[in-house]
Amino acid sequence: MTALALLDYASVFVFALTGALVASRAQLDIVGFVFIACLTAVGGGTVRDIILDREVFWISNPSIIMVASAAAFVVFFTAHLLESRYRTILWIDALALAVAVPAGVAAAIAVGAVWPIVLIMGVATGCFGGLMRDVVCNEVPLVLKQGELYVTCAFVGAGAALALLYLGQPLSVALIGCAGATLVLRMGSLAFGWSLPVYKSRPPRV
User: Fold this and answer.
1) 0.70 exceeded by the pTM?
2) Could you tell me which residue ranges the Glycine transporter domain spans (predicted)?
3) Sign of the alpha-carbon torsion through 63, 67, 68, 70
């Protein structure tokens, strides 16, 4: 199994957990759990593969859908054991982001994409699945939530991978650096409130 395939499997499973947890907050049935888990798990990778003109990863490997569905069943029978499902979603989603961004970077590099496309594919793979999940479940999208870093984390992580490659590091080291930068920044935002300045409206000048 290739490194890209392993990243895809890991990203799918962890993102599927977050999708199923959001489904539990919406009190959906088991079919709804599976649908939201699969949508979250493959959304970002599907966008990535369509843009890169690759065969969509879960079509070439349908076992991906089985992994996402298994995660949905696990959450369906265990979500009630969690003290705070929302906090769990935040932290598991941070882990999922740190796996998905390197998967997007690796996929873009595999097709010989230039560095701006590699950067964009890392961000898209990390962010679009969660965005679809939250929009469909009528939740405030985490990627747009005020006062938290999210897209920025994906952007910095993908940039770290490119920087390491530029410095002559092997792809495996670059992907580990990507995951580490993404995870540290996202967890720092959750734990310590790290954020970027937000726009504040002002009265127009007369």
Assistant:
1) yes
2) 6-79, 90-164
3) positive
Cα–Cα dist 128/7, whole Å: 16
- Angstrom CA distances, 2 to 5, 20, 61, 139, stand at 5, 27, 13, 35
Task: Judge contact between 42 and 134, C-beta under 8 A.
Answer: no
Asked which of 5-14, 40-49, 113-122 is least confident by mean pLDDT, the reply is: 5-14
User: Whats the size of the chain, residue-wise?
Assistant: 206
Give the mean pLDDT of 26-52. 96
User: Per-residue confidence at 206, pLDDT binned at 50, 70, 90?
Assistant: low
Residue ranges per structural domain of the chain = 3-192
Average pLDDT on 18-42 reads 95
The Cα–Cα gap between 169 and 180 comes to 15
List the structure tokens of 144.
């747009």
Angle, vertex CA 128, rays to CA 125 and CA 133, nearest 5:
135
